[in-house]
Amino acid sequence: MTTETSPTVEIVEVAPRDGLQNEQVHVSTAVKAELVRQALAAGLRRMEVTSFVNPQRVPQMADAEALMQDVRTYPGLTAIGLAMNRRGFDRAVAAGCDEVNMVVVASESLSRRNQGMATADSIAIIREVAAAAREVGTPISVTIAASFGCPFEGEVPEGRVLAILEEVLPLAPLEIAFADTIGCGVPSQVGSLVRQARALAPGMRLRCHFHNTRNTGLANVAAAVEAGARTIDASLGGTGGCPFAPGATGNVATEDVAWMLHRMGISTGVDLEEAVETAKWLSDALGKPMAGGVAKAGLFPKEAALGGCVAVA
After folding, report:
1. Which parts of the chain span the membrane according to its record (predicted)?
2. Residue 242 is a catalytic residue
């Protein structure tokens, strides 16, 4: 069990959005709603449910409003909608999202491919959205994508990411997330960026989003948490990928992240047995193998299934 000094890390479940957006086979609204329901049963309360983007560019998200209609009354759910512009924000608010996650891409090349605009233009849109968010009372978070590298430009300097952070801080977002969009980050980068961000914004909630493209995802989670991040994005079964970033594969698996953190003495509130069963169900629904390790290998020790922590001597 946790001690009084043990930190708590919140896992934001992103399988319904980031986990499914790159699937080539159509996923029905009913399957997505069932995924949200099962994730809630596993203790995952805060969820990126869908994205309000152009359905011609991301067809899997064409049912955003219909899905929100199905899940918005689920008890205990904090539903996050992702948006790229003011229209997307307005749609998310109208659909009943509790939060809206806005995205700015740290590299110019990926920004133009992913959002069709320069990084500076994205920041200008977020400024406009932040003002609208205050008026309607819907909080926004800001994700800085490609924080650790770009598929077209290579290295993304830490200073550039921190400069973007400084530009969005005055907008008072609920949270700022650093995303390793293509899974190229390593623990030393992650630890450095999170520590620098905490120094620049000591009161800001920091979140990290990792893809496991090069098998550094879990190590990066550990580095982020040790550096002070207290929210981690993850996807049941390790599903996911970015349609506009060549070679990007799945997110870190929720069940793997929760298992590791529990073994480190850190509480997440996730019921591991339920999470593993949901990962298996999602694998069957998608007709593809799971990317995570815990669901394949099984829980160790069995006490980890209780959703708390294993005491480590």
Report:
1. none
2. yes
